[in-house]
Design a protein that fits this description.
The protein is of the alpha/beta class and 343 residues long. It has twelve helices and twelve strands. It has helices at 19-26, 29-36, 49-65, 78-91, 103-115, 140-158, 175-189, 205-218, 230-242, 258-265, 279-294, 315-331; strands at residues 39-44, 68-73, 95-98, 119-123, 132-137, 163-169, 194-201, 224-227, 250-254, 271-276, 302-304, 308-311. It has a six-stranded parallel beta sheet with strand order 2-1-3-4-5-11, with helices on both faces. Strand 6 (163-169), helix 7 (175-189) and strand 7 (194-201) form a beta-alpha-beta unit.
């Protein structure tokens, strides 16, 4: 995996809960004066592994430039998101890094922020108009295409070219991203002998277990499940195990995490491949864009961070990913110990 741009300085325990206070404790008066001019507010949708690694990227970049950070999550609630944006406007932040819940519903508050002189950096999802200074994203269709290519090869090599496929989307959370991933996947796997027999929606693991279980029960000849996000992938794997279909139904998923990496290493051979976003670098690049915009420097309107993935054919890479993540969380108990994040 190509990580040419990673210049990571990662802070974990303590920084995750109170980055502003800790950062202020490490800089001198001159740096603090500069930091006072760069206050960045971040709003994420929820607390999951993507968010944790994204925040590591954000905090690494924040520490490197001596800025200050405020963190919050909207819990996918439009009213809470609006309230948080208004709070950041009142606090006088210089930039807001946000994954908007909905292009239309999120626009009024973010337009107010932009009109107040706040630089808006969106990631994952964005909105129209002039409010965003930059949009940091991974090509969502590319994510689906990459997993679809791995699935197509598996179907040809291991299933005799024939497959009955069930799909788990996350339309209720993010219809545009879900649709793009599924479209990319379907474009890569289409062919004679390949049929999609079910299409469900479940982005949380707990619900995905039930939805995938219903798909399996209703389609006894199904042999492939594709899930478009991390929670759906976790649920699909657990549903296959619960149904006792190991070796008969194979899962292909999205959004690599340490849990999914461990599924790839499992002897039950259920999960075969996972492709997703480079969470760390998305956070790092979002801060880079925010600082440049605050300083009045040119900023790319769309910043594309390439997708990355893992599969069972390259288990050493999977083990390295797990080890490096666990080493960082275990071996960086304080800011005195600086760690490099390079999965």
């Amino acid at each position: 995996m190509n990580r040419k741009r990673i210049l990571a300085i990662t802070m974990f325990v303590g920084l995750m809960s109170c980055p502003v206070a800790l950062a202020e404790g490490l800089i001198g008066e001159k740096e603090r004066a500069a930091a006072d001019k760069k206050l960045i507010g971040e709003i994420v949708l929820q607390e999951d592994e993507f968010t944790r690694v994204f925040r590591i990227g954000v905090e690494s970049a924040i520490y490197g430039v001596g800025a200050r950070l405020l963190e919050a999550k909207s819990e996918s609630n439009p009213d809470k998101e609006q309230s948080l944006v208004d709070t950041y406007i009142s606090r006088g932040v210089n930039a807001i890094i946000i994954s908007p819940i909905d292009a239309a519903a999120s626009a009024p508050a973010l337009d107010r922020a932009a009109k107040a002189g706040i630089k808006v950096i969106t990631f994952n999802s964005t909105l129209g108009g002039d409010a965003p200074s930059a949009f940091v994203k991974t090509d969502q269709e590319q994510i689906g295409q990459a997993t679809g290519a791995a699935t197509a090869k598996f179907i040809k090599d291991k299933l005799g070219g024939k497959a009955k496929i069930g799909i788990l989307q996350f339309k209720s959370l993010s219809p545009e991203r879900s649709g793009a991933r599924v479209s990319g996947f379907l474009g890569a796997v289409k062919g004679d002998g390949v049929d999609v027999v079910a299409d469900g929606d479940a982005w949380q693991a707990e619900k995905a277990v039930a939805v995938a279980g219903d798909i399996i029960a209703a389609n006894p000849d199904i042999n492939v499940l594709f899930a478009a996000n991390e929670g759906g992938t976790i649920g699909a794997v657990q549903a296959v195990r619960k149904a006792g279909k190991q070796g008969k139904i194979f899962v292909f998923g999205s959004d690599p995490s340490t849990q999914l990496a461990k599924f790839l290493l499992s002897d039950d051979d259920v999960l075969q491949a996972v492709t997703g976003q480079d969470d760390y670098m998305m956070g790092f690049r979002a801060v880079e864009a925010a600082i440049a915009a605050i300083d009045g420097k040119p900023v790319e309107k769309v910043i594309i961070v390439p997708a990355h993935g893992f599969d069972t054919n390259h288990q050493s890479a999977v083990r390295d990913f797990v080890q490096k993540f666990e080493d960082n969380t275990a071996d960086c108990p304080t800011l005195e110990k600086i760690c490099a994040w390079s999965p």
